[in-house]
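Entry:
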Amino acid sequence: MTMTVAKMMCMCFLLVQLSITFFVFMCCVGNGNARITSAFVRSEFPSVDIPIDHEVFAVPKGYNAPQQVHITQGDYDGKAVIISWVTTDEPGTSKVQYGTSENAYDYAAEGTTTNYTFYKYQSGYIHHCLVDGLEFDTKYYYKIGTGDSSREFWFQTPPKIDPDAPYVFGIIGDLGQTYNSLSTLEHYMHSGGQTILFVGDLSYADRYQYNDVGVRWDTWGQFVEQSAAYQPWIWSAGNHEIEYMPYMGEVVPFKSYLYRFPTPYEASKSSSPLWYAIRRASAHIIVLSSYSPFVTYTPQWLWLAEEFKRVDREKTPWLIVLMHVPIYNSNEAHFMEGESMRAAFESWFILNKVDVVFAGHVHAYERSYRISNIHYHVSSGDPYPVPDKSAPIYLTVGDGGNQEGLAGRFRDPQPDYSAFREASYGHSTLEIKNRTHAFYHWNRNDDGKQVPTDSFVLYNQYWASNEGSWTQKKHHLGDLFGWTAPTY
């Protein structure tokens, strides 16, 4: 009996030690004292584009049936959408019929039609229609096309602008049109996301030549329709949208992208569709162009200075920035490419208490700590990033699944500013709960399954400093082996 009691006491003591060790380890991870480079590297499917005759690219049946349908926000506050589609047989009508009941279209809006050539490729007839004056938090049904070839879809408007409006954003970058791309998109569509923040590099059509460039824009448009026809995709442009191809006589940057994917740039007083801002629910979202001039006194620089003045954290507490090239990146791929934009804008991000910056470009996932490098002035100051509670979290999500494959070579040792990094395909979600906190998840595509891999609780920068109580929290054990997500 005595031996049994002794053994039980010994086991209990070891169990307590294990619990304490686990708790301390998790606290270190969450509070920035540990950095993780995941050893998981998987190419789930070959990094080759899906064949053109695959069902995912199937065009709808019927004469002049609308195809490649997608929507984006059409104004500053979320009471409008721009609906876009393509017809191939003839221009047809650019009218959108819509209403709040299925098969009952009480309203109509008239759009415009355009087309373009790229080398000898002739695009279909591209339609864009602004549908405005919508009610917040309302499901709308819409119909495009005519007769037996008409098609019907729906979308949900966001809640009205309010500091405590909950909302779920999906974040995808560098998607392409491979089987990995399809895995990412299908997983996202089951995530509960309500709007996609897309951080550039859409179709990767520029990896083709001559007429095939335009053809692969068409297949990509059909590929994303399964999501983009039903919820807004907030667009930003990457390097694969530039399409500077002088050997084909094509020297106008962003030509295909600008014809196909409109943005509500004028609503935010921008002079270019490549940089703009919107407000949605409780978030103010700023889209920057990594491949347009942004140094002092350029149009983008001047616009951003004014846009930050328009941000009202009492109404939209969550301030989110989208760009293509990450300004903090510890991957060998594209290392330091974002340095010039960091030098131009990082101090503004900190001054204006940006919550999070999403970027793509690097075909891997990485999350930073809150750090900054704003004190170096060539001859003085810290020449390296330092912890900074006023700084945003930087997230690289260029892992959508394109044909260039994963960027598996991270720099060693892992820099102090890097919290977590992994070369896998996936997508992210940002679930805003109220004005003070949001839940962030990065989900890996693993053997055809969505696997939550990195997550944390994000505390709002504006309300944290104003309330004085929202500081970085410590982990605690919810039960013997449970723990809460890291908080930032």
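The mean pLDDT is 89.
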